Amino acid sequence: MKKSKPMTRSENMARVKNKNTQPEVYLRKLLWHRGFRYRLNYKSLPGSPDIYIPKYKVAIFVNGCFWHMHENCRYASIPKNNHDFWKNKLEGNVQRDKQNYIRLESMGINVIVVWGCEIKQMMKDKIIEKEKTDNLANHILSTPKFK
């Protein structure tokens, strides 16, 4: 494996997007084709959910496994370089997520977290895609509507 320059990690991290990621766009297209209409990155709500479906009061977060420390996931690991910084940063993300989810639920909004690795798997396995999309759609539809 080729050894990288010290600036490479910084440059790579600077390129990471937080909106319109490939998994997020993929999930949005699946939901749109199922007839769900939504708002994107809804800033009026805590945590600015990636997808907010007002009709069902459902907030969907598409979480990257690395940035949100997905438990028991091969994509979620703390870098060895500058370990303390990354540990604090990533644990802070997880704490902030939990607080946002609690605030949303106290507002009567159902929170759904979809992990990046799950969407990557759906993108690979087209057969499972319909089953997972059906499960997500059923979960959204089973939430009580609030006027």
From TrEMBL:
Keyword annotations of the record: DNA damage, DNA repair, Endonuclease, Hydrolase, Nuclease
Pfam family, one: Vsr
Coiled-coil segments: none
Stored Gene3D superfamilies: VSR Endonuclease
NCBIfam families the record matches: vsr (TIGR00632)
Family that this chain belongs to: Belongs to the vsr family.
Protein name as catalogued: Very short patch repair endonuclease
Protein source organism: Lachnoanaerobaculum saburreum F0468
Gene from which this protein is expressed: vsr_1
